[in-house]
From TrEMBL:
Enzyme class, first EC level, given as a word: transferase
Enzyme Commission numbers on file: 2.1.3.15
Recorded superkingdom: Bacteria
Record's protein name: Acetyl-coenzyme A carboxylase carboxyl transferase subunit beta
NCBIfam families documented for this protein: accD
Keyword Metal-binding: no
Annotated catalysed reactions: N(6)-carboxybiotinyl-L-lysyl-[protein] + acetyl-CoA = N(6)-biotinyl-L-lysyl-[protein] + malonyl-CoA
Annotated compartments: Cytoplasm
Pfam families attached to this UniProt entry: Carboxyl_trans (PF01039)
Lineage start: Bacteria, Pseudomonadati, Bacteroidota, Flavobacteriia, Flavobacteriales
Length: 285
């Protein structure tokens, strides 16, 4: 079937020989910029053309922040139960099972300890891929234990927030985590150990109302969505038109809710700088 080769156009590849571009090889940002996946990873998962910060998880943040990507994960085997026997569109136990299979994670946060620029650091990092980064009892417990580890070993603590809010399937048990983690952070403050809070896209709900805004220094990535309730709820509650972009990190910085906005390529240097300043240590190169 020579007509199918379209030789007059210089196209001679038979249809059965053609292959689709493998998924994940290219990334398209919300502004329409296309970048190779390898190039994106080398650029700290930031689109080089429009500087858009792609959502990443604990795996990528640990690679960026820990020296040589070397760390020890803490409490990794803790998993959620279903004490309320909760059912919405599916049973909670099945939702958890699906999330674990899809992400390879046990829950929506990972905590690890390692070296960052040569000094010890404990990091708790939330993963939005696991049920929208929702905060349940395991998330609160792992963060609280991470803070306790920092207390016991006199280390700084970094918390990277990325969440849709409290996990409704755990109801009041989820809301209790706000008080538990905040109490642990108070102990960290009493011990005069640094706590840096990094808000990434998105940081919302009970997370914003608790540990995400309790840092000695509160920082965020460019363009991150940060807020408590959604724009529709706020508009209905206040009866007022809302400013454009009022829940972006840039707007919050302008109005005093954040201390700094830090580009991802500068995260490691800046976080260690803030820790040194809080501890009144000589600045590191």
């Amino acid at each position: 079937m020579t007509w199918f080769k379209r030789t007059e156009k210089g196209i001679q590849t038979a249809t059965e020989q053609k292959k689709d571009t493998p998924k994940g090889l290219w990334y398209k940002s919300p502004t329409g910029k296309i970048v190779e996946a390898d190039e994106l990873a080398k650029n700290y998962y930031v689109s080089p053309e429009d500087d858009y910060h792609v959502r990443i998880g604990s795996k990528e943040y640990f690679e960026i922040l820990f020296d040589n990507n070397e760390f020890k994960e803490l409490n990794e085997k803790i998993v959620s139960k279903d004490p309320l026997k909760f059912v919405d569109t599916k049973e909670y136990v099945n939702r958890l099972k699906d999330a674990k299979a899809k992400t390879g994670l046990n829950d929506a946060v990972r905590t690890a300890v390692g070296k960052s620029k040569g000094k010890d650091l404990v990091i708790s990092c939330m993963d939005f891929a696991f049920i929208g980064g929702s905060m349940g009892s395991v998330v609160g417990e792992k963060i609280a234990r991470g803070i306790k580890y920092a207390l016991d070993h006199k280390m700084p603590f970094l918390l990277i927030s990325k969440s849709g809010g409290a996990r409704m399937q755990e109801a009041a048990l989820s809301l209790m985590q706000m008080a538990k983690t905040s109490a642990r952070l108070a102990q960290l403050a009493e011990a005069q150990l640094p706590y840096i809070s990094l808000c990434t896209d998105p940081t919302t709900g009970g997370i914003t109302a608790s540990y995400a805004m309790l840092g000695d220094i509160n920082i965020a990535e460019p363009g991150a969505l940060i807020g408590f309730a959604g724009p529709r709820v706020i508009k209905e509650a206040t009866g007022k038109e809302l400013p454009e972009g009022f829940q972006t990190s840039e707007f919050l910085l302008e109005h005093g809710f954040l201390d700094h906005i830090v580009h991802r390529r500068e995260l490691k240097d800046k976080i260690n700088l803030y820790i040194d300043l809080i501890q009144n240590l000589p600045l590191r190169n």
